Amino acid sequence: MSEKWSPKPRSLTLTLRKPTPAYLLIVITVCCLVLVAFLFTNVGFDIQHKSNGTPDIRILIGIMSPYWATARRQLVRNAYARFPKSLPIDIIFVEGNITAPINQGRARYAQHKAIEWENNTYGDILHLDCKENMNEGKTYEFLKKVGREFAGKYTHVMKSDDDAFINLPGM
Fold it and tell me: Is residue 21 scored above 80 in pLDDT?
């Protein structure tokens, strides 16, 4: 039997799911980064200026890309190569360790050899010593490594994925 239309709306019940630990970690990390940025801007954190008065900023964009996505990385490289080299932006591809159910050692060796060749050719891959994943802390490990190893070089850090495109001159 079909239901008849009635002017009274049905009651909607909202079912809330418990957030996952990875989601909570991301939310807490973003909140902390916003808080730190807010504190630094209020205590007189100044961006260095060049002699001609323009701000001296340097942006790092980390593109999350698993090691097997070589073709995607090449497409991204070709797309960003069309922009002027004078932009104060560096682009790197971020990858983690693969996990293989069998022959873990051989799989990691093959991964490292393939990535070593690609990095020697293009020089734009940052390897993290963590499991290749989407929701288990790879972004956190990337931000931690950038903070430790490149703290003085970049004024801004950004994360993207290999299926997204950023309009660099528009930044």
Answer: no
**CB-based contact 122:77 (threshold 8 Å):** yes
Instruction: Look at strands 89-97 and 59-64 and give their pairing.
Output: parallel
* CA-closest candidate to residue 63, choices 98, 96, 91: 91
The predicted model gives 102-122 an average pLDDT of 85
- For the entire predicted model, the pTM comes to 0.64
Q: Give the side-chain half-sphere CA count within 13 A for 62.
A: 24
Say yes or no to pLDDT of 63 above 80: yes
In terms of residues, how long is the chain? Answer: 171
Q: Which residue has the higher pLDDT, 39 or 23?
A: 23
Q: Are 88 and 54 in contact (CB under 8 A)?
A: no
| Distance set, CA 4 to CA 7, 133, 134 (Å) | 10, 48, 46
Eight-state DSSP code of residue 17: P
CA angle 143, 64, 41 (to 5 degrees): 35
Rounded CA separation 88/22 (Å): 32
Helix spans in the chain (H) = 21-42, 70-80, 104-122, 138-149
Pairing of strands 59-64, 125-131: unpaired
Q: How many angstroms from the chain centroid is the CA of residue 101? A: 27
